[in-house]
Design goal:
alpha+beta, five-stranded mixed sheet, globular, binds FE2/S2 (inorganic) cluster
Length: 110
């Protein structure tokens, strides 16, 4: 079990509990967290699941892969940071208990 805290675009925090190894995107969508549309359903084809991993946690989630990074950087109007990830590419596990994720206000498709 892992508790993940999403900081939504309006600054409010939502704590969600992951029980069965979902992706970060699936956890957010399943809990109706504001700021993640995930239009492609996790196929890494839309980038509407972009998020910023909290700086204190990026070593544990790891950075975006080269393909993932290219997808994020290909978006217009999105603030790309070193901690940018596509949440559908972050697999949740016990080791990420306490993870904090920030959701950008300028998400594409929202
Ligand atoms: S849900 Fe489309 S890229 Fe992640």
């Amino acid at each position: 079990m892992a508790t993940i805290t999403f900081i939504q675009p309006d600054g409010t925090a939502r704590a969600c509990v992951n029980f069965e190894g979902m992706t970060l995107m699936q956890l957010a969508v399943g809990n109706l967290v504001d700021g993640i549309d995930a239009l492609c359903g996790g196929m890494m084809q839309c980038a509407t699941c972009h998020c910023w991993i909290d700086e204190a946690w990026i070593d544990r989630t790891g950075p975006a892969s080269p393909d993932e990074r290219a997808m994020i950087e290909g978006l217009s109007g999105v603030e790309v940071r070193p901690t940018s990830r596509l949440s559908c590419q972050v697999q949740l596990g016990e080791e990420l208990d306490g993870l904090i994720v920030h959701l950008p206000p300028d998400q594409p498709g929202i």
